[in-house]
Design goal:
Length: about 60
């Protein structure tokens, strides 16, 4: 389980570092940026919960 969580964190860091620099994001609003980040947080949260359920039989 911890390996999957670490891999998800690494993937999130790689994706955020691969995004364009501030100067390249002139048309990208702060609202859209916040929505993009929230989407990634939700995706990672779902994947972590799924890994917990699969590995330990855990149910919220």
């Amino acid at each position: 389980m911890t390996v999957e969580i670490r891999e998800l964190i690494i993937q999130a860091k790689v994706v955020s570092s691969a995004q364009p620099a501030e100067s390249e994001r002139q048309g990208h609003s702060l609202v859209q940026e916040s929505l993009d980040e929230a989407t990634w947080v939700e995706k990672i949260k779902r994947e972590v919960l799924a890994a917990l359920r699969d590995e330990e039989g855990w149910r919220p």
